[in-house]
Design a protein that fits this description.
alpha/beta, four-stranded parallel β-sheet, 22% helix, elongated
């Protein structure tokens, strides 16, 4: 291509386009790319995206991440930090580290080494951090989190020690998005005045019972309750979209509090698994909030317990609801106990109900009859069979 007449020479591409190309590469690939043109020889030293992945250093003759792999990765990261131009800031820092815990080897990489690399990256004032660790959980040294540009964090398999959220709020005033997967949270409260997007899944809380989430600016929430406790939400007046899965709650008060916190949402998916015990619900509609903005609602099997208790309550409190999706399960354990005396409701905007179910689910006929008897026509109720 470089020598063909009428073709664009690779070596003449502007630096900003080369940087853009490099942003989609791992750091090792970016370094190798610089051999394609003499003018590019030192461009990797100022590339704004650092993407470091240990998998690139695994030997081809083995499936394991052994000491040789760790050593090669460590040497690369040390040389990268040593030779990179210290002046330019970085926009993105992605880090992937896999250690083979099945092998009885003395690991070269540990929390101190990895924390050092993360701290070095944070000093470069990135906008985005993405840390994935497939090894023993990393105890993150959050004292280094002083970054006025940092807007989004994604952590996988990281331990957030007590004080992390206080440091995040003080040291990272621009933070807008947080994603946690398979992490551990040592704080009793997950708090931020600036977060707008929050996703927490497969994450443990060390306090065991309740962890409060105080994020009043959140507009998008995806939350799976921890297996060893539960989340209690404070008000989220700006919430637009939410997916909330509660595995268990300690009492009905927490259940109602979480509903009140979600009441501003326009789109809501709410599921209650209730693995520990059945939840007793009082016959008092005053405890439920009004979902005055809600137009799209997805509910799990739990809403059909106690003679369609949860479903009826949502229909009574969602005057603008347009679309409803019900996800039925093969196993149908009773999750809630309660009676509802007033079962009347008016959903004049509801025009579509989708029932997702397995083949020959006996509850489907009951659900269809419930809506037809409430004023909907059969064509407005759509049955979607799982394959």
């Amino acid at each position: 291509m470089e020598g063909s007449p009428g073709k664009i020479r690779l070596s003449t591409l502007p630096d900003d386009i080369v940087f853009r190309i490099m942003s989609f590469l791992t750091m090792r690939q970016a370094v190798r790319m610089c051999v394609l043109s003499r003018r590019w020889r030192n461009l990797w030293r100022t590339v704004p995206c650092i993407n470091a992945d240990i998998s690139e250093f695994k030997r081809r003759d083995t499936e394991h991440y052994d000491q040789e792999t760790e050593l090669a990765f460590k040497m690369f990261m040390e040389r990268l930090n040593e030779l990179r131009d210290p002046a330019p800031l970085i926009h993105t820092f992605r880090f992937r580290c896999i250690l083979d815990l099945n092998e009885e080897i003395n690991h070269i990489l540990d929390s101190e080494v990895i924390n050092g690399w993360i701290s070095h990256a944070v000093q470069k004032q990135p906008h985005f951090l993405d840390i994935v660790l497939l090894c023993d959980k990393l105890e993150l040294n959050h004292s280094a989190f002083n970054c006025r540009y940092l807007r989004r964090i994604e952590f996988t398999n990281v331990i957030l020690m007590q004080g992390f959220f206080k440091q995040l709020e003080m040291g990272c005033p621009a933070i807008r998005g947080l994603f946690l997967d398979e992490c551990s949270v040592e704080d009793v409260e997950i708090s931020s005045q600036t977060l707008k997007v929050l996703t927490i899944k497969n994450t443990h809380v060390s306090y065991g019972n309740k962890t409060t989430i105080s994020t009043p600016s959140v507009t998008y929430l995806k939350l799976w309750s921890p297996l060893n406790g539960t989340y209690v939400l404070n008000d989220m007046p700006l919430l637009v979209t939410s997916l909330l899965v509660l595995y268990h709650v300690q009492d009905s008060g927490d259940f109602f509090q979480n509903l009140r916190s979600l009441s501003a949402a326009k789109s809501l998916e709410f599921d209650y698994v209730g693995r520990r015990k059945k939840l007793t619900i009082e016959n008092n509609l005053q405890l439920y909030p009004k979902f005055n903005n809600l137009v799209s609602l997805t509910l799990g099997q739990w809403c059909l317990d106690a003679n369609f208790y949860g479903l009826t309550v949502f229909l009574q409190t969602s005057p603008k609801l347009e679309k409803l999706t019900l996800k039925l399960e093969k196993e149908k354990p009773q999750r809630i106990i309660g009676k509802l005396e007033d079962r009347s409701f008016t959903c004049e905007h509801l025009t579509r109900v989708e029932v997702v179910c397995s083949e020959d689910d006996p509850l489907v006929e009951d659900v269809v009859n419930f809506f037809v008897n409430s004023g909907l026509t059969s064509p407005q109720v759509h049955i979607i069979r799982r394959v």
